[in-house]
Amino acid sequence: MGDSPAIVQSQVQGDQAKGEEITSENIGTELKAPTLVQYKWWIQIVTYSIFVLCSQSIGTLLGRLYFEKGGNSKWLATLVQTIGFPILIPFLLITSTKTNNKNTEFKKPSVLIVASLYSLLGLFIAGDCMLYTIGLQYLPVTTYSLICASQLGFNALFSYFLNKQKFTPYIVNSLVILTVSSSLLVFHNDDSGEHSNKTSRRKYIFGFLSTIAASAGGALMLCITQLALQKIFKRESSRLIIEMSVYQSITATMAILIGLFASGEWKKLDKEMNEYKLGKILYVLNLIGTAICWQVFTVGAIGLIFKVSSLFSNVISILGLPLAPILAVIFLNDKLTGIKVMSMLLAIWGFVSYMYQHYLDDLKDKATKKGQLVELSEVSLIK
């Protein structure tokens, strides 16, 4: 999907179909075009990847810090994962509404379909964020982050059925290793750390199962998003990325606010802020920072789905998993045990395996385009 180098190939084939004359000058133009398109594509990929990696790591640490220093509201911790959407509204107003005009017969989906989609995704996000919150409350950052690696396995499974994702030996190897990586933590309970004094075995298991369920839900949501882009929107634009981020966040925020008031937790927030160990100002700054981080993460994740696929978006997310545990060890005095180190190394190995397959696919794609351009050049010379 997106502004990939494959656009050049379709343009060349389109010229042939129209019967336009192919000259040596045209061939030279086509040879230069892929490079320019590739640069633009990779710049966008790097930008969205940075959004995902940085915001995910910082957001996870801030979320854990909230519970470490006296925060206790699950609904509030869930709310800050979606309520940051107002920071995107200015971009929604100034972003160009121009779309990719490759499909001249593009027809906008009905308002009812779009509203239903955003409502479904928003409610799904609200429930998924709550599960992530429970996991983060009951588990250390290192354990929580590494368990989240299982999301890639779920994503691959859903991508196979919903997005027709092809599997290769390297991708299968990546999925198996990442699954083993998270499975190592099932029976590990940080007995040597301070969390063992605060978190019972029962809560640890509950947090573990919640994180696994959240990972499965997050993977399904990514695949549904990709399917919606392919079947409903059928277009690509920066504005659509912002729209999806804002509208689904609005729905999720409304659902979480209902839960916050229905549960009665809102009555305890004033006392919680006054008793927060780092003070009122840092309490508020923590919540604001967390909200901004997760909104930036949403934009980056959707952007990667646009440009490549839901599976690739998830792979970039998994790449950031080792960052949070390392930062947690440095800033939160989290314990990095031998099992966690092994799990982290396996997660990195699984990521490298997947990226190597992407590298092979890129080489194959370039070779195919080069061969087609050479054939066109030979045809033009014969004429």
From TrEMBL:
Keywords of this entry: Membrane, Transmembrane, Transmembrane helix, Transport
GO terms for MF: purine nucleobase transmembrane transporter activity; purine nucleoside transmembrane transporter activity; transmembrane transporter activity
Key word Transport present: yes
GO cellular component: membrane
Stored PANTHER family: OS09G0467300 PROTEIN-RELATED, PURINE PERMEASE 21-RELATED
Family: Belongs to the purine permeases (TC 2.A.7.14) family.
Alphabetized InterPro entries for the sequence: EmrE-like, PUP_plant
Superkingdom classification of source: Eukaryota
Transmembrane segment boundaries: 41-63, 75-93, 113-134, 141-161, 167-187, 208-229, 241-262, 283-306, 312-332, 339-356
Its membrane topology: Multi-pass membrane protein
UniProt region (Disordered), positions on chain: 1-20
SUPFAM superfamilies in the record: Multidrug resistance efflux transporter EmrE (SSF103481)
Name of the featured protein: Probable purine permease
Pfam family, one: PUNUT
Location within or outside the cell: Membrane
Record organism: Capsicum annuum
